[in-house]
Predict the structure of Chorismate-utilising enzyme C-terminal domain-containing protein.
Amino acid sequence: MNTPLAQAKIQIEKAIITFENVIKIALKKGYGVACYRLPHQDRFKLMIDTREETHTCGEAIENLPSGFIFNPFENKNAKAAYYLQAHLEMVLGDDEVKANQAEYYPLRDEINQQLSTDNLPSDWQYHQLVGNEQSTMGNREDFIQLVEKGIQQIQDGKMEKFVPSKCKKMALEHFQLMDTLWKLSCKYPNAFVSFVSMSETGSWLGATPEILIHMDREKIFHTVALAGTQAYEENMDLKDVAWKQKEIEEQALVSRYIIGILKKLRIREFIENGPKTARAGNLIHLKTTFEIDTKAINFPDLGGVMIDLLHPTSAVCGMPLKESEQFLLVEEKHDRAFFSGYLGPINTDGESYAFVNLRCMQLLKNEAIFYAGAGATIDSNPEKEWQETEMKCNTLLSVLK
C-alpha cells in the first residue's frame, strides 16, 4: 500500500531523474549548463546556453539578459567573466524544459521530445579542459611552508593577513551528480549549491556560504564580511561561541575593507549588522552583513560597480589586497582557476546574486580536484591552518563517501 509519504518520495525520485536526464542531454549536445539552488530554498533551477562557444558578459551586469556568471580568481573585470545565457530553463519538479524566446522553441521541443523516448544518454559528458592538470598538488609540507613564509612577511610589515589555499586530487567512485547536489542541499541549507559546466571553464561543483553581492527585488544591495572558522559541534548554541583574538581581528579586517570601499564611493547610508556567529554546514564563521538602498541613494548600477571593487575580497586574498594577492600569485604552487572567483544567477526572477566560489571541486574524468583556503595572521599556527583547510574540503568529501 502506497502511503502519502511513499508517493511523495516516488514523485521526488521521478522529478530528479527527469531533471538529470535534461542535464545529460544538454551536455551531450555540447551546451553550457548551470544548475543551482539558492540558500534557504528547496528547488534546483537549471539554465542551458545553446551556443557552441562560451561567451563573456561584455557589459555591466545590470544590462545582461537572464543568465549565470562564472568568474575565475585572477579576473577583476566582470565584463570579461564567463556568462551563460538562460536560453532554456527548468525547475526541479517541472515535466519539461521551457524557452525564454521564440528562437529557442525548436531546441526546447527537441529536448522535450527526447525526454519522452528511451533514447536517453546513459553516461555523463562533462565539459573538461584539456591540459588542465595541476602541475603541483598541495601537500601538508608545502602548505605549512607557505604559511610560515607568509607569517614572516607579516612580521616584516609587508602584510596584515593572507589567505593561503591548497588543492588535492581524489578519485570519484560511483559519482552521481544529482545525488551529490541533493545531499549537499540537504546538509547545507544555508549554502549556495551549484554545478556549472561550460566548454571554456570545465565542470565545477560546490556549496559556498559567502555572498559577494546580492541585488534583491526591492533594489536593496547586500554583501557580507565572512571570516574566522571553527568546527560546528552538535547542539552548539551559536550565541555562546567564543572566538579567539586572531579570528576576531581577521573578520574585522574584512569588514573594514568593505567599509573602505563604500567610503571611496562616498556611500554613507548603509546598514551594518554584526559580527555574529553564523553556521555553514560543518563549520561556523564570524559574519557581518551590509545593506544599501540603491533607490534611496540613486545608484542603480551599484551591483556592477561593487562586484569589480569587491573581487577578489580580502577574505580570499588578505590585506593589504595588492601585496597579499601578489604574494599568493608568486608563492602558491597551483592554479586557483575558478576557486575563490565568483558565480551566480544574474537578472533572474528580479534578482542578481554572485557568490564567492568556496568549498568547491573541479570534475575530471573519474576524479576531482578539491580546493580550500584559510585566513592567516601574525598569530596563526601553520598546523592549525592546514587542519582548517582539511575541514573545508570535508564539506564536499562528506557527501561523497
Observations:
- The chain is about 30% helix and 30% strand.
- The helical segments are 4-28, 105-115, 140-155, 177-187, 245-264, 302-310, 321-331, 382-400.
